[in-house]
Amino acid sequence: MEPIRISYFSDVLCIWAYIAQVRLEELKTTFQDKIAIDYHFVPVFGNAREKLENRWREKGGLKGYSDHVQEVVKKFNHITVHADIWTKVTPPSSTSCHLFLHAIQLLELKGIIPAAEKAFEKATWRFREAFFTELADVSDRKVQCAIAEQLGLPIAAIQEQIDSGEAYALLSKDFDLVKEHTVSVSPTLIFNEGRQRLNGNVGYRVIEANIRELLHNPPGEESWC
């Protein structure tokens, strides 16, 4: 049987996507080749600084948002965030991160980096971790390259994917899918060719139940549910 395809939309700078990473890893461990995850980015923080300053103007500005993130994280024991998150370092945009990560993804798709190394997934997680725990400005190309070097990735080859326009094309495809599926929340999981979706902070058991239902009743088969 073909694996259940899951379109996973997230923003690198989103605290909820950072929290949800452990659920994604558990899904891959539990279902293995029964699911296939297609990663896409949604620019929730495409204009991060201005967005947060405007939306949190009456609630303490960036400091208010930082306090909010800290309160959210207190509810989970599997992650930590830096005490000065979003205040001492405020990345202007997640879009540059997404572009760079798509360039890494292209190296996998072209076989320049073995897919088995999961470089794209590792780099995406490292970008999140670097920002939330180390206050790294992951929107800065120098920081992006430094992280790639730490992971042993070929910087020149990554830059080629950006310079050629191919990484931009992949990012543009994300934008098209975001519009097509009206995705506005990070993370968002879309199943069953767009007929099912889970938005935001959804518990693991809920995600698992959706997948098991699809495995039990494949798309196209009738179900009384």
Automatic annotation (TrEMBL):
Please report the stretch or stretches of sequence annotated as the DSBA-like thioredoxin domain: 6-209
Q: Which organism is it from?
A: Oscillatoriales cyanobacterium SpSt-418
A Pfam family of the record is DSBA
Q: Which InterPro entries match?
A: DSBA-like_thioredoxin_dom, Thioredoxin-like_sf
One function term, GO molecular function aspect: oxidoreductase activity
Membrane-spanning residues: none
Superkingdom, according to UniProt?
Bacteria
Q: What is this protein called?
A: Disulfide bond formation protein DsbA
